[in-house]
Design brief:
With about 250 residues, the protein is α/β, with parallel strands linked by helices. It has two domains: about 190 residues, Vaccinia Virus protein VP39 (Rossmann fold), CATH 3.40.50.150; about 55 residues, N-terminal domain of TfIIb. About 30% of the residues lie in helices and about 35% in strands. The protein has eight helices and eleven strands. The chain has a seven-stranded mixed sheet, sandwiched between helices. It has a four-stranded antiparallel sheet with strand order 6-7-8-9. Helix 2 packs across helix 3. The chain is globular. Bound molecules: S-adenosylmethionine. S-adenosylmethionine binds next to helix 2 and helix 3.
């Protein structure tokens, strides 16, 4: 279980916001192109964090539900999407990606920026697949990303970021035998009062065998599964294990 803590949620909400802008248009275009005006604009974001990707879809008239294990992350998500929460277009629920159920169903389910690498095992990922399958409409689409083993090996490094707002130290280590990358992110971030608050978050990314991931999705019932890069989600990657990050596209 890896719910991000309150002090790190604040840092995440300021410094890890760009990924949604990179991936949102590609996912939406892939989903809507074959469906046209008939596309069911209901979205579930699993591990939605501070809601950056959710916001992109809200701005494109989707009804959105976001779930995340971390209540502190959801506090920012609700704040970032306040007008949509108020109008009922956005709902955020604290829940576990590998053990949730919802009354609503969705045309599109997404999970991005390593959220599912945070699950501890293939068994947990399979449970997540079953939860998603249950809430996805027939003909619906599940798009998620994973850091690959190749990508996680590159996390064996230390990085320092320094701005007027914050000092951020990221230390990573990849445990080849355990198939898991550990990252510790710590530092200080300026508060509204001008003082600096310390933060620290340790999280792991599990390296999943991609063939096993595909088999698990197919066993769960998905009609088709392929690996792709974000610049063209419709083009299957022939050697996904060679990439640092892959998108997995599963159609029901
Ligand atoms: C790297 S962040 C990605 C957040 C968001 N998807 C984005 O694109 O910014 C990973 C998120 O997964 C959440 N998380 C970790 N384990 C989870 C679980 N078992 N169930 C739901 N969320 C989880 C964390 O709290 C965190 O918000």
């Amino acid at each position: 279980m890896q719910a991000y803590n309150p002090s790190f949620a604040r840092v995440y909400n300021s410094f890890w916001t760009g990924f949604a802008a990179q991936v949102g248009p590609g996912i939406r275009e892939f989903y809507e192109r074959p469906r046209g005006l008939d596309a069911d604009r209901s979205l579930l974001d699993v591990g939605c964090g501070t809601g950056q990707l959710v916001l992109y879809f809200l701005e494109h008239d989707y009804d959105v539900t976001g779930i995340d294990l971390s209540e502190p992350m959801l506090v920012y998500a609700r704040e970032n999407a306040a007008e949509y929460v108020e109008s009922g277009q956005a709902t955020f629920v604290q829940d576990d990606a590998s053990d949730f159920s919802l009354d609503d169903s969705f045309g599109l389910v997404v999970s991005t920026y390593d959220a599912l690498n945070h699950l501890e095992s293939l068994a947990a990922l399979e449970r997540c697949f079953r939860c998603v399958y249950r809430v996805l409409e027939d003909g619906g689409c599940f798009v998620f990303d994973l850091n690959t083993r190749e990508g996680l090996r590159r996390w064996n490094t230390t990085k320092v970021q320094e701005t007027d707002e914050a000092l951020i130290l990221t230390s990573g280590i990849y445990d080849e035998r355990g198939g898991r990358a550990w990252t510790r992110i710590s530092g200080f971030m300026r508060t509204e009062g001008g003082l600096y608050e310390r933060f620290e978050q340790t999280a792991f990314n599990t390296a999943f065998d991609l063939a096993a991931v595909r088999d698990a999705l197919l066993a769960c019932g998905w009609a088709t599964v392929h690996f792709a890069a974000i610049h063209d989600l419709s083009e299957p990657l022939l050697e996904p294990e060679r990439e640092a990050r892959v998108f997995i596209v599963a159609l029901k």
